């Protein structure tokens, strides 16, 4: 099947999914605990969007307002990694292409490159830093190299209309800047992770590269906190559990997407929370709710 036909089918599939409106939660019996936790958060004013699907069958296991476009902070960096992986086929943009950081790229927040002495790094190393620590400086350098317009075009080509990387990473957002780094819907994000797992994004090689970068992620503070994995070393699996995930954190935003495989099954999941981060107890309640979903996911796959 030709690539244009595949792209058209993706767009058609997403369009068909968007026609219906959410009519309430869909909950597999194994996910009652997570649904109750999210219901309690919603009662406290937290905006919740979540979805989990069986990786093999595509069956929806858990769904709460999964069509809603939510702020997702660093989750949108996955779209950047997809564009970078696709570009690595170009002769003038290989894995060893050296990129320099500049004063314009400088930003605080997540990542370790800002704390290192090296002024330049290969493309593949920068992508690994984004996957491992959601490195903001590496993100901005990669965006400058491939172009935000190219990332947007790739996103549209994939048929995603409610998921996007909107801007560079900025320490302060002014009135002329995008209000969020990225947005996404749980429905589209679980589709994207499933397609990556199946080698269907760009091609099998590009999908494998993105999965490899994401498998380095060290942030297991949200949904993945329930899986009992070593945050610094979990690529080879542990007690039959394999995880690939990406998190997004901002003021009043906690978001995570992932692929979890176990002895019994595999799942893809996306959970996003938007809340008034005015006191620590509110934030901890959100994290507790995300962990409750993680416990349900673990029970399903293990």
From TrEMBL:
Region Disordered: start-end pairs: 1-29
InterPro entries the record matches: Beta-lactam/transpept-like (IPR012338), Beta-lactam_cat (IPR045155), Beta-lactam_class-A (IPR000871)
Start and end residues of each Beta-lactamase class A catalytic domain: 52-273
Pfam families from the UniProt entry: Beta-lactamase2 (PF13354)
GO molecular function terms attached to this record: beta-lactamase activity
Domain of life of the native organism: Bacteria
GO BP term, example: response to antibiotic
Entries under PANTHER family matching the protein: BETA-LACTAMASE, BETA-LACTAMASE-TYPE TRANSPEPTIDASE FOLD CONTAINING PROTEIN
Protein name: Beta-lactamase class A
